[in-house]
Amino acid sequence: MDSYELAKVPQEQYFLFGTDEFGRDLLSRCLWGTRISLIIAFVAAALDLTIGITYGLFSGMKGGRADTVMQRILEILSGIPSLVLVVLMLLIFEPGITSIILAMTISSWIPMAQVVRAETLKIKQMEYVQAATALGASPVRIALSHVLPNISGIVIVRAMFSIPSAIFFETFLSFLGVGMRIPNASIGTLLNGGYKVFKLYPYQMFIPALILCVIMLSFNLFADGLRDVFDPKMKE
């Protein structure tokens, strides 16, 4: 039985990455799946930045009892396994891009908040910040004009490292079947589909796995380059 003849595929039409078990072009599905994974990763990283910077700046600038209470909250949230929390959230909400982003954002902003708070406490002791405080500058003005610009390098590098982590996490969830669901295409669902027919058509799993490796390696190398730019001492 010729599947291409039954599907009425023209003789001159070829598929660079082959087709899946349903005759769909694997190259098109890889491009679409990479797009979905990148959208989820960038939106999740943007939410991590927004929530983590806001929480960390407020905690570091406020100090005292408020800082203590906010840090205890972070410790409680950090003690909950993120994978268990995300899977439970995905079981409650309907599968899709929005539910995956919300589930990943629940706990992924905590490291960003801790880094921002630590840097805020360090910069708050600098002479120029104390001078601005003595001149009557408000805490909001100090945070936005003095603290945030000086920690922007660390924040950007941290955000770039969080993008490949978010891509891998989304791929892992979709591969387990609790993220994006088949027939929707993402790197995780493509790996899931290729895993089922690995013995017969191993390319259906190798190609999405190679794409995942290239994306994660590219973002990690880019983040390393940014870290060297913002902190030249890291080169030594």
User: What is the radius of gyration?
Assistant: 23 Å
Q: How much β-strand is present in the residues? A: under 5%
Q: Could you state the order of secondary-structure elements as H and E?
A: HHHHHHHHHH
Alpha-beta classification: mainly alpha
CATH superfamily: MetI-like
Helix content: over 70%
CATH architecture: Orthogonal Bundle
The domain tally reads 1
Query: What is the level 1 CATH name?
Result: Mainly Alpha
Cα distance, first to last residue?
A: 63 Å
Detailed description of the structure:
With 236 residues, the protein is mostly helical. The protein has one domain (22-230): MetI-like fold, CATH 1.10.3720.10. Helix content is 75%, strand content 0%. It has 10 helices and no strands. The chain has helices at residues 3-6, 26-62, 64-79, 82-92, 97-108, 110-123, 127-134, 139-176, 187-196, 203-230. It is elongated, with a radius of gyration of 23 Å.
Annotation keywords:
MetI-like fold, 236 residues, mainly alpha, single chain
Q: Which secondary structure elements does this structure contain, and how are they paired or packed?
A:
Elements: H1 3-6, H2 26-62, H3 64-79, H4 82-92, H5 97-108, H6 110-123, H7 127-134, H8 139-176, H9 187-196, H10 203-230
Helix pairs in contact: 2-3, 2-5, 2-6, 2-8, 2-9, 4-5, 6-8, 7-8, 8-9, 8-10, 9-10
Brief overview:
This protein has 236 residues and is mostly helical. Helices cover 75% and strands 0% of the residues. The N and C termini lie far apart (63 Å).
